[in-house]
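Quiz preparation item.
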């Protein structure tokens, strides 16, 4: 078979223009069309007296389910939502897990400390880069292993920080 648009017997294939309501070959799907807006739904999860998690979608009257775990209830609520809305699997679900006061307080405290630790980690990373630059460059010209020992890092990490610093320049 030749690669010049002819068939096995040398006859040219007739190509018909695509109807106006259909995309042409090679067209990019959805080009020029508005993006589909994803709807978000708030789902409240509450523990019932028997230990099950009950999930209810706010704004969808009668859309609720239950599960032994929050994760199971979340999977099931998506299935329940399919009876009420189109594209339920693509919808954005905002989880609102209702916890007893003590548990909610513990989660908030952890979240606050976690954010603070992440900020401190970023500050420590900046300080580590600055320390590596000072120890390895300038007049000191320390080896990666010596700098690592002083900073309490591995020599591989010192090399990474040195390369990262060199790339930024």
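Solution:
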């Amino acid at each position: 078979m030749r690669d010049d648009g002819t068939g096995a017997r040398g006859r040219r294939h007739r190509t018909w223009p695509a109807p106006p309501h259909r995309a042409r070959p090679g067209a990019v799907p959805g080009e020029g069309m508005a993006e589909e807006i994803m709807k978000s739904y708030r789902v409240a999860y509450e523990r019932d007296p028997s230990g099950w998690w009950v999930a209810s979608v706010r704004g969808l009257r009668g859309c609720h389910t239950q599960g032994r775990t929050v994760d199971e209830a979340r999977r099931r609520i998506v299935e329940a939502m399919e009876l009420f809305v189109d594209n339920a699997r693509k919808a954005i679900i905002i989880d609102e897990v209702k916890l007893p006061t003590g548990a909610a307080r513990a989660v908030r405290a952890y979240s606050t400390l976690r954010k603070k630790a992440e900020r401190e980690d970023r500050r420590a990373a900046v300080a580590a880069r600055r320390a590596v630059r000072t120890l390895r460059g300038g007049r000191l010209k320390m080896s990666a292993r010596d700098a690592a020992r002083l900073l309490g890092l591995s020599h591989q990490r010192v090399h990474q920080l040195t390369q990262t610093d060199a790339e930024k320049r």
